[in-house]
């Protein structure tokens, strides 16, 4: 995941600050020198770093901060706020035209993730009850039209194409008309990318722009390219009046500098972040949540939203009841595991939990998706009776379950032990919470 290096370094700097009751101006200056290095190493544009440090220093060396009871915390808070500002302050939403359809034009270099993003955005819009139309405007890359059609089919979104013999300007125009005729309220136009910015590419997209007058021009940039992403954004912005940027491949091993520089350099807000190849791996970009994630303070809000989107509320309530009454079986255990997995790859979930990003980087902590798959296989190899009454699982049953799930008896033993521990913990917890789970006993 992006920002790992930066987060680790910043936590180190702030850990030192937090530990002290009093701070001098020199302590703050020293910390800011380290923050400066950390940002530069994360590939943040040097001018952006300079301004950022100046702003933080100006606020942090004030007498009130240094005299406060928890000066370290105050400094972290100032950095958090400035990071949020740097990335745009508040969330920049996708445009919505007064009169539908809203026309969204995609721009970007080849391989940035434009076509993928077009499909992801349609998927997101559909979840919000919109009726998008995809327009296949990339007639040069041989597989681009097909790729969009496959995506459209996967999510059930119509795709408008005139093949590759008609000009992209004409395709875009007719696509918008098609949306009007068919009641689509969003038109997402995929366009051709090139390996590098060239005149012909720019001219073509400018012509499309002039023909369909988009409400939103989204530049798709690959966060893995670091500073280059910022340069690309700047060149496009000069020619095309962008309204927003989408950062892709934030799941990769990027140092994160692009996310931190692009708004400051171009003035264009980041509207979405793409975090994987799968169709639902797209998130609205929230500067405040991203800042808190970078500082290792977690992003509980995004986590809760993910949970709400993916977990059935009735099921969650039922599960909660079972946990309280210790009525929890191995079947529930499995179901709960599946629910959590629906929320996304575990290591991405951990990144959103406060402090967890750090734990994840510890040498002996590994998010082992295989271990979860093994657990699932074991539980699934049990009979219903065994799942409800694990006490009956004797040695010969353990052997059978291990064989059925392709694991070992030791694996089965481990799982049963874990489950028992969990039940014990729940019992303790529910007796602590008192009847109904409303609060501590007698409290
Ligand atoms: P285009 O040329 O700009 O249309 O790029 P594509 O949409 O074809 O994407 C290029 C490659 O990047 C494909 O293999 C995508 O699956 C991959 N890709 C796109 N977005 C992401 C992302 O957020 N994370 C990762 N890991 N891969 C991505």
TrEMBL record:
Main localization, broad class: cytoplasm
GO biological process terms on file: SRP-dependent cotranslational protein targeting to membrane
UniProt EC number: 3.6.5.4
Highest taxon of source: Bacteria
Matching Pfam families: SRP54, SRP54_N, SRP_SPB
UniProt GO cellular component terms: signal recognition particle
Subcellular location: Cytoplasm
Residues annotated as domain SRP54-type proteins GTP-binding: 269-282
Molecular-function GO terms, alphabetical: 7S RNA binding; GTP binding; GTPase activity
Reaction catalysis annotation: GTP + H2O = GDP + phosphate + H(+)
Residues bound to GTP: 108-115, 190-194, 248-251
Record comment regarding domains: Composed of three domains: the N-terminal N domain, which is responsible for interactions with the ribosome, the central G domain, which binds GTP, and the C-terminal M domain, which binds the RNA and the signal sequence of the RNC.
Subunit structure: Part of the signal recognition particle protein translocation system, which is composed of SRP and FtsY.
Stated family: Belongs to the GTP-binding SRP family. SRP54 subfamily.
Stored HAMAP family: SRP54 (MF_00306)
Task of the protein: Involved in targeting and insertion of nascent membrane proteins into the cytoplasmic membrane. Binds to the hydrophobic signal sequence of the ribosome-nascent chain (RNC) as it emerges from the ribosomes. The SRP-RNC complex is then targeted to the cytoplasmic membrane where it interacts with the SRP receptor FtsY.
Protein name: Signal recognition particle protein
Gene name linked to the record: ffh
